[in-house]
Amino acid sequence: MYHRILLAVVMPLVCCCVDLYAQTVDSTKTYHIEEVSVSAQRIRKEVIPVQMLAGEELQKLSVHSVADAIRYFSGIQIKDYGGIGGLKTVNIRGLGTQHVGVFYDGVQLGNAQNGQIDLGRFSLDNMEAVSLYNGQKSAIFQSAKDFASAGSIYMTARHPSFGEGQNYRLKGTFKTGSFGLVNPSVLLEHRLSKQVSGSLSAEYMYTNGKYKFRYRQKNGYDITETRKNGDVEAIRAEYGLFGDMQGGEWKAKAYLYNSERGLPGAAVRETGDFVHEDRQWDTNFFLQGSFRKHWGNYSLQTNGKYAYDYLHYLSDPRLDVTTMYVNNHYRQHELYFSAANMLNILPFWSADVSVDFQWNKLNADLVNFVYPCRYMDDFVKAVDVLRVKKILKNLKIFFPLKNAQLTFGCQSSYLTLDGIKQTFGTRFSHINAEQVFDEIDALTPEEKAEASHMADELVSSAKGVHMPAEYVKNDMEFYVAIKKLMAHHGCNAFTIPCFEVCATRQLNARKFTFCLAKSILTEDGIPAACAGDVGSVISKAILMAVSNAAPYMGNTLVWNPEENEVRTLHDVPTRYMKGYDKPALPVELVSFAMDGWGTTLRYDFAQDVGETITAIPDMKKIMIVKGEITGCDNYLVPECKLAVRYKVADTKHFHDCQKYVGHHFALVYGDYGDQIAEAAEALGLEVMRA
Questions:
Q1: End-to-end alpha-carbon separation of the chain, Å?
Q2: Residues with Cβ < 8 Å from 484, sequence gap 6 or more?
Q3: For residue 20, what pLDDT band results from cuts at 50, 70 and 90?
């Protein structure tokens, strides 16, 4: 476009000069014209199309509220509970109201009680624009909350504007209609200084809600009745301050909504009076502010808000004998802060880091109310998800094989390693398992001394030793050899097909097993799984990323359906199942083999009865299990028998979910279900909870 415009300007000038020269040769003069450049900024096309009503187009609509305006948008469903003055919510793409983010001047509105925002409370009198996104905005310079909704509605308040020498603007409206509707409103805009202006918007709305309807009685006669207890009285007021500065702007707003309304019952009664006297009172108040400024290539945007919501619901049987007495009061408090930082690195390359913090608390006068209090840091969540994805992508599993043949004897629900590569980006390094034994034989005297020292430390620190201590050294030599091989192959995870390699009888001859090494590797931050199960390596890596703990893994099955009990059995617990930052758990040493060799760690889960655990299996779909420890089995019994028992919500549902995943489960102490679900969804995995 630049070259075409430039030629269109220059060529006529050249032609003109030639003609003049031909006619007046003796009087030629030369004129030097400065270079002219015509350029334009590239128009950025929205990745997600936006639907918008703004300016005069919005004001010309014969509607009362924002909810009425968005009816003109496509792809949405308005849920209207009661006409004028009634609750109005919106669904986008068939998802519930809780999945729709509603933003007012860039700050998200919230409700800790039910997650619903009543769009009927917001008037169009001082609204500049209403926008709808089927997803999030394409812009990256926004708060973290903006990225978290399946659909988004943005309301933008009118910025005061004044003519030359004008300092005030006043607008008054009066609306009336059926059912006794009275709706006056006023909008006052005033200039405080050259850079600062204010806006006051207030309205009152009342309707008696009485209308006539036909009703057929049992005897077949039609009668005319009047709808009662449908009155609504509401007051809304908001005051905003708007400031301009060089390279930026700021806004501050105070908002108040107060209403009382009747809740009419269903017209199905045979009493003839159709009286239903339930009442509801609402008070909503918030203070919010935002600041945006650009310094060269760097931009900063901050938002802050405090909100208070009050709801009182009354159902009095003294007024309506068919109802039970309900007199509930709910009070919500919310604090919110966000900061978005953007750096324009190149004209076509920008980077943004957004941090959000939100605190919600809900109080009520109900018996046995849980009084929820939630801290939510969307940035931390986002970082956790990115960390999980990065860890899995950078995972390289050291996977020795018997005779260099891939085993399927105890595989996860992934039938091929390609499935794991494609889903997570995880890589593998294979060698013949016989090379592992060669590496043990090739250990230097110094390396053997190191293994012996670690064995002595483990024995001395153990709560109890129930096997010949000299065998522990054999297991530690295997651990040292594996660490050397992993370093040589650039690997950071480990598994080995236990059954196939055991069949070589090498373990019998050398008097060791793989169990202890897998426990210690996991304590080192290296996910290590039994039986060649690469899916369990993935599961352990996810748990380690979100919990900062060293997981336990084992065979898992429904144990006691009557008590909703599940059991996970294996000999690879760790001393840091409760967290790497916690003290090491007391363990005892018990042999795997009946004749005393093959070291395993044993932890008595029975001392943690009542504690919460989170478990996930080797997976194609991901199954997240939240359980409560109920006991421990075979604590000091040789062979692979250590088992932790825990109670789940429903063993039938557990069993139905487990059909789609593997039998190996990895678990840690604590509840990390939400973090795992966030990461799983980002990885494209279907989430099942049990």
A1: 60
A2: 439, 447
A3: very low
CB 450 within 8 Å of CB 458: no
493-495 and 396-398 beta bridge pairing: parallel
CA dist., res. 521 & res. 99, Å (int): 41
Strand partners, 205: 234
**32 and 96 inside one domain:** no
Please state whether the predicted TM-score (pTM) of the whole model is above 0.90. no
| Contact call for residues 516 and 457 (beta carbons, < 8 A) | no
Mean pLDDT, range 601-630, rounded to an integer = 91
Q: Which of 489, 481, 498 is closest to 401 using CA atoms?
A: 498
| 492 plus 350 within the same structural domain | no
- What total of structural domains would you count in the chain? 3
Helix (H, G, I), strand (E, B) or coil at 160: coil
What is the dihedral sign for C-alpha 423, 427, 433, 436?
A: negative
Q: Which long-range contacts (CB under 8 A, 24 or more apart) does 134-137 make?
A: 134/48, 134/49, 134/75, 134/92, 134/93, 135/48, 136/48, 137/48, 137/50
Q: Is the pLDDT of residue 308 over 50?
A: yes
Q: What is the DSSP secondary structure assignment for residue 56, as one 8-state letter?
A: H
Q: Answer whether 122's CB lies under 8 Å from 73's CB.
A: no
Residue 605 has what pLDDT?
97
Whether residue 388 contacts residue 394, with contact meaning beta carbons closer than 8 Å, is answered with no
Whole-number Å distance between alpha carbons of 377 and 541 = 23
Which helix (H) or strand (E) element contains residue 591? strand 588-591
Contact 42, 58 (CB under 8 A): no
What whole-number distance in Å separates Cα of residue 51 and Cα of residue 519? 56
CATH code of residue 289: 2.170.130.10
Give the integer Cα–Cα distance in Å for 77 and 81.
13
Q: What is the mean pLDDT of the chain?
A: 83
Radius of gyration over every alpha carbon of the chain, rounded to an integer in angstroms? 35
Give the domain extent around 2: 1-40
Rounded to whole angstroms, what are the CA distances from 137 to 133, 304, 553?
Answer: 7, 20, 42
Are 33 and 81 found together in one domain?
Answer: no
Average pLDDT rounded to a whole number, residues 76-101: 73
pLDDT tens per residue, range 206-257? 988 887 777 776 666 677 777 778 888 999 999 999 999 998 999 999 999 9
The three-point CA angle 314-318-322 to 5° equals 85
Question: Mind spelling out the 3-state secondary structure of 503-529?
Answer: CCCHHHHHCCCCHHHHHHHHHCCCCEE
* Chain center to CA of 474: 46
Query: Distance (Å, rounded) from C-alpha 489 to C-alpha 172?
Result: 77
CATH number at residue 490: 3.20.14
